[in-house]
Amino acid sequence: ISLDELLTKITAAGLEVEGVRKLASGSNLVVGQILEVNKIEGSDHLSLLSVDVKDEVLSIVCGAPNVRKNAKVIVAKNGAYLDAIDLTIKKSKIRGVESNGMCCSLTELGVDPNSLSKSQLSGIEILDDDAVVGDNDPLAYLGLDDTIIDIDITPDRGDLLSMWGLASDIAAILGKRATLDEVTPIKGEKSDLEVVIETTQCDVFSVRKVSGIEVKESPKWLKQILLSNNFKPINNIVDLGNYIMLVTGQPLHMYDYDKLTSNKFIIKDNIDDDVKMLDEKDYKIETGDICITNDNKVECLGGVIGSFTSMIDKDTKNLVIEAASFNGTSIRKTSRRLDLQSESAKRFIRGTDKYNTRLVLDFTINLLSKLTTVASVGEIVEVNNLDNKKAIELPVDNIEKLLGIKISEDKINEIFTNLGFKYTLEDNAYKVSVPTRRNDLTIKEDLIEEIIRIYGFDNIPYSLPVNANNIGGYSLHQSRRNKLKDYLISNGLNEVVTYNLTSKSNSSLFEVLLTDEVVSISNPLTED
After folding, report:
1. Are 264 and 400 contained in the same domain?
2. Which among 360, 355, 145 has a CA at the least distance from the CA of 243?
3. To 10 degrees, what angle do helices 163-173 and 3-12 make?
4. What angle do CA 309, 314, 318 make, to 5 degrees?
5. Which of 297, 305, 409, 528 is deepest in the core (most CB within 10 A)?
């Protein structure tokens, strides 16, 4: 499928495309290998490089501190255009020395600097040894030759903040069903960890202990994926946590087990304290903030940021991995008050799949064993307050009644299957169990909306409404409404237009609105 066709289809299905961009870009780029490095007289940082690009050896002046003999680099030859810095490369003289081309850093190629390490920011990009000299697609070696589609995720579709959720939705839009990663269940050894939840703002808290790991640099494939999603690679353990969040939508937190002073995790929301966090800044914790405590010390501000005391470092050997579900409203308030806008908070605010923490922890161990040695894995220790998710009943007649068109039973079954819905059809009514990640689907009208969204609004036949027209005058309804308005205004009343929604306290000001008649929404964005 072409990019233009994909954009058209997903936009028609309700996924708002904000923009399309390249991860990195530049014309006339090639893989080069540095043959010689010679310091330029009179300069403390400039070097003259002899760079082999297969068909010729170029003389290039470069000021990067990390140039070295035999390194393979990205070369912009004369005539290349780097749109990120609006620069056309041409033959020039620097300190009186002729330069034919440019060895590029990732920022010069348009990569988000927030996702780069200090060494990448200060120097040119060094490619792995498997890069072929003369290759005209050097960005492919870094996984930066791809196109990024930026999609604006609505507040109710937190499931789309994951590869699993987005892949499932786009597959259904294209008339297919996504095949998601297979996860091997891991029972694990008996664990000495304990969990106690002392707040109603945590539905589930799952942890497992992993021993005998090694913290080291992440493999190339993992760094490429993180880089393409604007995440800065740190090490294999931290990077794995971010990767799992990108794939599943479930944020993880990693604790260094040997830095904890107790095996018991207590989740509270009644702490007032100053705590040093991972960014080495002190934050004021207030009542209402969700805190994961260990031996009366705050080890994590749930869903927002971990504490400095139990952070992962190069000497970490034993881990505790956490997957939990926290109240999104609380996370939003804490995140805003402390000005901590993390990727984890973004997902909790929109809603995560709270029924999936065990699967995610198993998936994490499946991948962890490919990134490091693992001596032992403990069983999952979990406390939860989860109800069984009920099936939604959808009478077939309601579909045509609401949409105004008839969609065949086979087509509805296909849509449900491709969306990953489990269903039965008895007595002319569907009973549908939706994936637990779809927090936005709770009533039959939601299912009907999914049917028409995937079926395609463009496939609804056009028809003009049949109405009795009153040419040159008001309809009976309009006339009566205008007379009523005139009567009320002549009696000293003013017409006002109110907001559709208001706070409970404001609604109580109107005595005619009895308390049991007020309709409340279950997931308000704000209290107002």
Report:
1. no
2. 360
3. 90
4. 70
5. 305
Q: What is the Cα 168 distance to its own chain's centre?
A: 15
SS3 state of residue 87? strand
Our CA dihedral for 410, 416, 417, 421, rounded to 10 degrees, sits at -150
**What residues does 424 pair with on adjacent strands?**
431
Q: Quick one: average pLDDT of 326-332?
A: 95
Query: Would you state the structure tokens that stand for residue 96, as one six-digit string?
Result: 């009186």
Among 330, 358, 384, the domain-final residue is 384
Between 521 and 402, the more confident residue is 402
- How many other CB atoms sit within 10 Å of the CB of residue 295? 12
Pull the structure tokens for residue 77. 């030859």
As a whole number of Å, the CA-based R_g of the chain is: 29
Average pLDDT over residues 306-327: 96
Phi, psi of 81 (to 5 degrees): -120, 125
**Angstrom distance (rounded) from CA 314 to CA 429:** 58
pLDDT reading at 435 higher than 90: yes
- Mean pLDDT over 130-142 rounds to 94
The CATH number for 424's domain is 3.30.56.10
Identify the domain containing residue 450 by its residue range.
392-459
Phi, psi (rounded to 5 degrees) for 172: -65, -40
pLDDT at res. 517: 67
Tell me, yes or no, whether 179 lies in a domain.
no
Looking up tokens 């930026």 gives 150
N- to C-terminal Cα separation, the chain: 45
In whole angstroms, give the CA distance from residue 144 to residue 125: 12
Query: Helix or strand or coil: residue 395?
Result: strand
Going by C-alpha positions, the residue among 29, 26, 35, 42 that lies closest to residue 59 is 35
Contact residues for 420 (Cβ-Cβ < 8 A; gap 6+)? 168, 177, 178, 434, 435
CA distances from 478 to 307, 467, 491 (A): 64, 14, 20
User: Same domain, yes or no, for 153 and 111?
Assistant: no
Residue 477 burial (CB count, 10 A): 8
Largest Cα separation within the chain, whole Å, is 94
Mean pLDDT (whole number) for 302-310: 95
Q: What is the pLDDT of residues 506-528, one digit of tens each?
A: 777 766 655 566 777 777 766 66
Burial class of residue 442 (count of CB atoms within 10 Å of its CB; 0-12, 13-18, 19+):
middle
Q: Note whether 55 and 164 are same-domain residues.
A: no
Q: Are 268 and 197 in contact (CB under 8 A)?
A: no
The full 3-state SS of 199-213, as one line of letters, equals: CCCEEEEEEEEEECC
User: Quick one: pLDDT band at residue 224, thresholds 50, 70, 90?
Assistant: confident
Helix or strand run (H / E) with residue 126: strand 126-127
> Number of helices (H) and strands (E), helices first, in the chain?
13, 27
Whether residue 63 contacts residue 115, with contact meaning beta carbons closer than 8 Å, is answered with no
Does the structure show a pLDDT above 80 at 471? no
Joined together, the tokens standing for residue 321 give 């991995």
